Amino acid sequence: MTSEPVKIDCHTLREFVAAALETRGVPKLDADKVASTMVEADIYGYGTHGVFRLRQYLARLTGGGSNPTPKVTVEHETVATALIDGDDGLGHLAMSAARDLAIEKAKAAGIGWVGVRRGNHAGPLALYVRPQAEAGLLGMAAAVGSANHVPPYGGSDLLLGTNPIAFSAPVDSPDPFVFDMATTVAAMGKIKTLLQRGKPMPEGWMVGRDGNPLTDPALKSEGFLLPIGGPKGFGLSVAIGLMAGVLNGAAFGSDVVNFTSDTTSSTNTGQFVMALDPAAFGMDKDFASNAARVFSEMRASPPLPGHDPVRLPGDGKTAAAEARRKNGVRLNPALCRDLNKLALNCGLKPPFPGLKTD
């Protein structure tokens, strides 16, 4: 059984994902949009949040937890802000709408802040901030995690998720600044991919209820994810929960639904997307060049012994994405076999005919 990554053409992968979503009642236009966003995640190297998530999305569509035909609407709006209701649809639809509206408002008013309620898991936040930087704007996005895996600092009840946050900025460079992180040491998606591949977790990602390190990803439900920086990561996660959850009338704390184990309930996932125009601060011509100058200084800093040269978040992403668009993406064989199983379950031709499903 092969252990080497398997390459697939991006267009072929998009067509398969869209066709699979359509078998669960998603209209073609929406299926194409979601499939494109999912494959973009893999193109930019966010494999834990790309087509790997197809099984979960199909399960929620089948179970009724996700609405295959949502009407994404703007519920409240001012010149610079808005609140979008995702109607329990696939999260990519509401978040894409929020991103586009935030950019539109930033160009008109200097800033655009758009919240989302009744959303769902939407893939990596990087995809909802990179377009701002490409348009000469700064971007920010955050979300309440799609399941609670973290207790409040010093506590033992699971009341917080990975609560990710992302930032972007334009730079006079092929690569904009794009920083996307969970507020936990590791994202749950990384643990799920290790489980799929039969590999252990490093120490420091999770602890069991006895406080000892947990390294078996199969036991992830028996332990806690650890916040970055201890109480500081906990505080950041709470702040994100207030802005992405409470402010939008979305779930936070014990109201959060585990979107993997519960496929029938509405998650009411909360998110927000922001866009900021440097021109609003008189920096329309200088921001990107000043950022590039400072970044060059950072990259020129001599590395410590045993360390690689300094890199900035987003470095190399543009060239790597262009290469994948041209040559295809490489997926781990365990994921490829799972996609073949999903294809058979959906009545579709397996996208990896050379791999056995077992």
What would your notes on this structure say?
This is Putative oxidoreductase YjmC. Its EC number is 1.1.1.-. It comes from Ruegeria atlantica. This protein is of the alpha+beta class. The protein has a single domain, classed as Malate/L-lactate/L-sulpholactate dehydrogenase, NADPH binding domain (Ribosomal Protein S8, Chain: A, domain 1), CATH 3.30.1370.60. Helix content is 35%, strand content 16%. It has ten helices and twelve strands. A seven-stranded mixed beta sheet has the order 2-3-4-11-5-6-7, with helices on both faces. A three-stranded antiparallel beta sheet has the order 9-8-10, with no helix packed on it. Strands 1-12 form a two-stranded antiparallel sheet. Helix 1 packs across helix 2. It is globular, with a radius of gyration of 20 Å.
Can you tag this structure with a few keywords?
358 residues; alpha+beta; Ribosomal Protein S8, Chain: A, domain 1; 7-stranded mixed sheet; 3-stranded antiparallel sheet; 10 helices; 35% helix
Which class do the helix and strand fractions yield? alpha+beta
Mean pLDDT: 95
Look at the structure and give the CATH class: Alpha Beta
CATH level 3 topology: Ribosomal Protein S8, Chain: A, domain 1
- β-strand percent reads 15-25%
* CA(first)-CA(last) distance: 9 Å
Number of domains: 1
In N-to-C order, the SSE pattern is EHHHEEHEHEEEHEEEHEHHEH
The assigned CATH architecture is 2-Layer Sandwich
Compute the number of strand runs: 12
Radius of gyration, Cα only, in angstroms?
Answer: 20 Å
List the total number of helices.
10
Strand order of the biggest β-sheet? 2-3-4-11-5-6-7
Q: Kindly report the name of the CATH homologous superfamily.
A: Malate/L-lactate/L-sulpholactate dehydrogenase, NADPH binding domain
Protein name: Putative oxidoreductase YjmC
Pfam families: Ldh_2
Organism: Ruegeria atlantica
Enzyme class: oxidoreductase
